[in-house]
Design a protein that fits this description.
Length: 452
């Protein structure tokens, strides 16, 4: 990989277990982080974890109490300078895929500090203007929409009309997928703004609507948000043996040419829809997620999952029989998996990766490693405003429907600091996603004719 980030030497830090937040180093040696191992990504690096901490814990009073209870010390001016140095981007290799998306001008400390100042001021403005405040009206709309879709699609699937049955399967699958969008926002605590309520809503919506675990999702998705597209950090890159998103990943280069995995990856662009997406969802619902809920004692999630299957059986087994109801369920689930997974893939997977040793500025992560999908009324609904992925990664705790409003201001901030504000048409981003899958698959299989 070329120099896609600030490939500079990590300065020595007195303790590898320290995290720098707001000018203080906090010792997390014996701290069991409720969010999981994501805290290890910045511990001991010397990089400034302040933006990451603020965006993840903006609504958590407990987080501030925990932080203040930890052993800490003031960072020296030299250590603060080193932290800012880590956020610099050095001139990249012209062959680097990162730099083909547009280079950042963060080549000296003055520019890093200027970006820090402007971003902090911008965020403060958004807070003051109420952009982080939830909308209960919007939450009611989202929940009602899904409930209506489930009821109407269930009625359609019970009618003696093939066209209505097919339309019902499609709508039921979309309703399940939209549960994925809704639970995603609940997992970021941006629905009601009350962490306990949003967490329980997420667990129910994800458990009943998708058969999956909110607790598992929170643990994994936080790692993605802390360091998107970063090797050994972003779990969304760890998808082998079913998928390979980037040929720079070491695991991809260890695939043996001629092996079954190499053959599978060679055709992954053709398998992603509809086969691989369905297999991932099936593996999650039948094993990975229920096991996680059981091991972590999230019994409410397990009850929600059980209610999902019981309700489907009660609604359709009398009309279709057990096997017929099972077939109908699988048909709706195929639609759901492809709807949610393919739409999640268009904002990151075709973009370059950063090395595990690189530490990018919070804003630069969003500039280099995310892309927006051009907005329209249909696209905003279809992707539940997650087509504004740049804004979502800058402010993950902001209600997603507000990202549309702030997007022109984000673009202005990026342009001021020479950062690329990447916006692509939906079908163009989809083509980029499948083209990337094809190239990476060819690379893994040893086919050099189009593996670039």
């Amino acid at each position: 990989m070329g120099k896609g980030g600030n490939a500079v030497a990590v300065p020595a830090i007195p303790k590898v277990s320290e995290v720098l937040i707001d000018g203080r180093f906090y010792d997390v040696t014996s701290f069991k982080h409720p969010g999981g191992s994501v805290i290890k990504f910045l511990a001991g690096s010397g990089a400034d974890a302040t933006p990451t901490y603020n965006e993840f814990h903006t609504r958590s009073k407990k987080a501030d109490k925990f932080l203040k209870s930890l052993p800490s010390r003031s960072a020296t001016s030299e250590e603060v300078k080193q932290a800012n140095e880590l956020s610099k981007l050095l001139p990249g290799d012209s062959a680097s895929p990162t730099w083909q998306t547009g280079a950042s001008p963060l080549t000296d400390l003055v520019k890093v500090e200027a970006l820090n100042k402007d971003f902090d001021a911008f965020r403060a403005e958004l807070v003051a203007e109420g952009f982080f405040k939830p909308s209960i009206t919007h939450v009611v709309y989202r929940v009602t929409e899904i409930a209506v879709m489930f009821v109407v699609s269930s009625w359609m699937m019970l009618q003696a009309n093939v066209l209505l049955n097919i339309a019902g399967v499609l709508m039921h699958g979309l309703a399940q997928g939209r549960c994925g969008w809704l639970m995603h926002e609940g997992g970021h605590y941006s629905l009601t703004g009350k962490i306990s309520v949003d967490r329980r809503l997420q667990e129910f919506v994800y458990g009943y609507g998708c058969g999956m675990s909110g607790a598992w999702w929170r643990n994994q998705h936080n790692k993605h948000h802390a360091t998107p597209q970063k090797m050994k950090h972003d779990v969304d890159l760890d998808t082998l043996p079913l998928m390979a998103w980037n040929k720079a990943l070491p695991a991809v280069n260890r695939v043996l040419p001629g092996s079954m995995m190499a053959l599978w990856l060679k055709y992954q662009a053709y398998l992603f829809f509809p086969v691989t997406s369905y297999l991932v969802g099936l593996g999650w619902t039948t094993f990975l997620h229920p096991r996680h809920s059981l091991r972590t004692k999230h019994y409410f999630e397990l009850a929600s999952m059980a209610a999902r299957y019981a309700a489907f059986a009660a609604a359709f087994a009398p009309a279709y029989g057990v096997l017929g109801a099972l077939g109908l369920y699988m048909a709706t689930f195929v639609v759901a998996c492809n709807y949610i997974f393919i739409n999640f893939s268009v904002s990151h997977t075709h973009l370059p990766v950063s090395a595990a040793s690189e530490y990018l500025h919070w804003v630069v992560y969003s500039a280099i490693h995310t892309t927006n999908i051009a907005p329209s009324a249909l696209c905003n609904w279809w992707m539940s405003y997650l087509n504004f992925q740049v804004e979502h990664h800058l402010f993950p705790s902001m209600p997603q429907f507000r990202h549309k409003t702030i997007s022109p201001r984000v673009k202005t901030l990026f342009e001021k600091h020479g950062l690329v504000y990447d916006v692509r048409p939906y079908w163009g981003a989809l083509a980029d996603t499948f083209r990337n899958l094809d190239h990476v698959g060819a690379h893994a299989a040893g086919d050099k004719s189009h593996a670039h």
